[in-house]
Design brief:
Shape: globular
Number of helices: 3
Number of strands: 2
Structural class: alpha+beta
Strand order of the largest sheet: 1-2
């Protein structure tokens, strides 16, 4: 089931929708990198550009992280 989450990015409130498993992985990635979750979300948001949405960018980031870990 998809859940809605809220955060503040660059001073603006925004929300994104993710399955809890993706949100859990984002928290694990932030912890592994020694970052607060909010900092990781800002980093991903900054890298996504104008195309696409935040939820998709977050899922793709998790996928890329897990693929790199598997190598």
């Amino acid at each position: 089931m998809i859940r809605k989450y809220s955060t503040t990015l660059h001073g603006h409130r925004t929300s994104f929708s993710l399955e809890p498993a993706f949100h859990d992985e984002l928290k694990a990635i932030a912890e592994a990198r020694g970052l607060p979750l909010a900092a990781l979300l800002r980093e991903i948001d900054d890298a996504r550009g104008v195309e696409g949405n935040l939820s998709s960018a977050l899922r793709l980031h998790v996928l890329d992280w897990l693929k790199q870990k598997a190598r």
